[in-house]
Amino acid sequence: MPVPDLPVRQLVLVDLLSLMLATGPGRRAVVAVDGPDGVGKTRMVAELVALAEHVAGREVLSVAMDDFHHPRALRYAMGRDARTHYEDAFDHAALRSRVLQPFRDGGPVVPASWDLEEDRPLDPDPVQPSEDALLVVEGVYLRRPELVGEWDATCLVTAPARITVPRGNARLPHRRVPGDDDPAHPANARYTGAQALYRQQARTAPPTWIVDNTDLQRPEIIVPDPDEPQWFEQG
Predict the structure, then answer these.
(1) What pLDDT score was predicted for residue 180?
(2) Strand pairing partners for 135?
(3) 171 half-sphere exposure, CB direction, 13 A CA radius
(4) In a domain, 225, yes or no
(5) Is the CB of residue 154 less than 8 Å from the CB of residue 133?
(6) How confident is the model at residue 2 (pLDDT cuts 50, 70, 90)?
(7) CA distance 213 to 229
(8) Domain count, the chain
(9) What percent of the chain has a predicted confidence (pLDDT) above 70?
(10) C-beta atoms surrounding 129 within 10 Å
């Protein structure tokens, strides 16, 4: 009986995982998976980690930047515009002290610090990665200048804002307002504006790989040419 063809998405993810697994062989390495809200980063990273259990000879684990927010009072202390989201939303010091530094030092990592929805601290049990583990950190704004030195490689997951904004909003039906699938709607300004600020700052840190995730069933891996910055400028 012929073996059925694998879906295009799974084949692409196998290729992407192979690229990531080649990062820092024989030692612990960190890959950042970056991209705007609603682009599909979280699902993609979960699929890569699950796939690694079957095809990789190396441990792959993941951490989400969403688990390293600042408390609500600090996030909104200076307002709720695009700049405050970019500058104040995330606790990079906690990410470094709980995850990145101990991971580099060969110790265990604590994979979260703050519950975004309940606005309270988190203190999960430490996780001890293997000596040559690959850590995937997933989130927004990861190629910002103050984080560039933390990564061995970066992957930008991208799609146009007309795709990512409706996808992102669909995850939060209780917050929907009429017309907010339009990226230009005022309800989206905090996030689309923050992405615009970020893209300006990240232009000097081109990603190692880009995944065009516009079509969830047929993503495409692109190894970017740093002289073609339009790939980095999609919303």
Answers:
(1) 77
(2) 30, 61
(3) 10
(4) yes
(5) no
(6) very low
(7) 18
(8) 1
(9) 91
(10) 18
Does residue 1 belong to any structural domain of this protein? no
**In CATH, what number is assigned to the domain containing residue 194?**
3.40.50.300
Q: What are the residues whose beta carbons fall under 8 Å from the beta carbon of 113, sequence distance 6 or more?
A: 67, 68, 91, 94, 95, 98, 121, 122
In a domain, 110, yes or no: yes
Please say if the pLDDT value at position 161 is more than 90. yes
Query: 36-90 pLDDT, tens per residue?
Result: 999 999 999 999 999 998 887 899 999 999 999 999 999 999 999 999 999 999 9
The span from the CA of 56 to the CA of 47, in Å, is: 13
Could you tell me which residues are beta bridge partners of residue 136? 31, 62
pLDDT, position 5: 60
- How many residues does this entry show for the chain? 235
pLDDT digits (tens, 9 = 90+) for 190-216: 999 999 999 999 988 999 999 999 999
pLDDT at 3: 42
What are phi and psi for residue 231, nearest 5 degrees? -65, -30
Q: Is residue 2 included in any domain, yes or no? A: no
Class of residue 179 by CB neighbours under 10 A (exposed 0-12, middle 13-18, buried 19+): exposed
Taking the model in full, what pTM does it have?
Answer: 0.91
Structure tokens at 84: 């405050």
Residue 13 belongs to domain spanning: 8-233
